[in-house]
Amino acid sequence: MSARSHITTHVLDSVTGRPAAAISVVLEHHAHGSWREVATAQTDADGRVSELGPEAVSAGRYRITFDTGSYFAARGQATFYPHVTIVFELADESAHYHVPLLLSPFAYSTYRGS
């Protein structure tokens, strides 16, 4: 069994109250004036990505981009946000960072999870 990634996420479709499966996710790190891809993944049947990048990453600025347009298109539903990008600061290299996304076609919300 592998250890959990330093950064994880999950997506909940707040309209249906169900996990949002099969959303493509990209994790990037900002350093030296540009963004560098760290990992890519797809949400599982429970809307989670528990292996998003390595077990440890350095402190700094990161962003997670969710391909929400493809998720809604597969359901025949229009959306105002074809991508959702969350930028955050990882300050404590010993802490786990969980970045959830609560999603609907015309709104989204996020918070620092545990």
Automatic annotation (TrEMBL):
Cited InterPro entries: Hydroxyisourate_hydrolase, Thyroxine_BS, Transthyretin/HIU_hydrolase, Transthyretin/HIU_hydrolase_d, Transthyretin/HIU_hydrolase_sf
A molecular function GO annotation: hydroxyisourate hydrolase activity
Biological process terms in GO annotation: purine nucleobase metabolic process
Domain called Transthyretin/hydroxyisourate hydrolase: residue spans: 2-113
Reactions accelerated catalytically: 5-hydroxyisourate + H2O = 5-hydroxy-2-oxo-4-ureido-2,5-dihydro-1H-imidazole-5-carboxylate + H(+)
Gene3D superfamilies membership: Transthyretin/hydroxyisourate hydrolase domain
Domain of life the protein comes from: Bacteria
Record's keyword annotation contains Hydrolase: yes
Keywords from the named record: Hydrolase, Purine metabolism
Residues reported in the UniProt entry to bind substrate: 10, 48, 111
E.C. number(s) listed in UniProt: 3.5.2.17
Quaternary data: Homotetramer.
Known function: Catalyzes the hydrolysis of 5-hydroxyisourate (HIU) to 2-oxo-4-hydroxy-4-carboxy-5-ureidoimidazoline (OHCU).
UniProt similarity note: Belongs to the transthyretin family. 5-hydroxyisourate hydrolase subfamily.
The name this protein goes by in its record: 5-hydroxyisourate hydrolase
Organism whose genome encodes this protein: Cryobacterium lactosi
High-level lineage: Bacteria, Bacillati, Actinomycetota, Actinomycetes, Micrococcales
